[in-house]
Amino acid sequence: MRALIQRVKNASVTISGKKIAEIQKGLLVLLGVKGGDTDEDAKYLVEKIVNLRIFEDEAGKMNLSLIDVKGELLIVSQFTLYADCRKGRRPSFTDAAAPEFANEMYKKFIQLARATGLKVAEGEFGAMMDISLVNWGPVTIML
Predict the structure, then answer these.
(1) C-beta separation of 130 from 16 below 8 A
(2) Would residue 38 show up in a list of annotated catalytic residues for this protein?
(3) How many independent structural domains does the chain possess?
(4) Strand, helix or coil at 25?
């Protein structure tokens, strides 16, 4: 399981011109699922993300977590995080999980994120989405 997280001032998901999800200060999480990922992988990654100290304290140091700042999460499925571009010019996605399994793990990840008590918004699995965000910092981290 891979997550590309971006600290944002705001972010939203639009499908066919209709905004379906939106957050304010928090994290946009692009989540990739690999075949063989487990519930434990999802639990570990959620805990890591919500406790990662990447928000600034009063001294301007990255010392506060998403939980500390009562931030919000926007979680979007992103199988292309498993693109393999080592050969040729077209990415291979053989490491990405099959859609049915990936959707199951994506939903599990969202469920675990909601269990933290934070506001959680989500994209639509498998849909063509327009993602808008204001990356704050910028801060972008791959987990």
Answers:
(1) no
(2) no
(3) 1
(4) coil
Q: What is the helix (H) or strand (E) element at residue 99, kind and residue range?
A: helix 99-114
Residue among 80, 94, 116, 140 flagged as catalytic: 80
Q: How many CB atoms lie within 10 A of CB 12?
A: 19
Host domain of residue 70? 2-142
The phi and psi torsions of 39 (rounded to 5 degrees) equal: -60, -35
CA distance 130 to 143: 23
Instruction: For residue range 24-69, list pLDDT tens digits in order.
Output: 999 999 999 999 999 999 999 999 999 999 999 999 999 999 999 9
Mind listing the pLDDT tens digit for each residue in 12-26? 999 999 999 999 999
Strand residues in the chain grouped as ranges (E): 2-15, 18-23, 26-32, 55-56, 62-64, 72-77, 119-122, 130-142
Question: Residue 80 is part of a domain; what is its CATH number?
Answer: 3.50.80.10
**pLDDT-based confidence at residue 120 (cuts at 50, 70, 90):** very high
pTM: 0.95
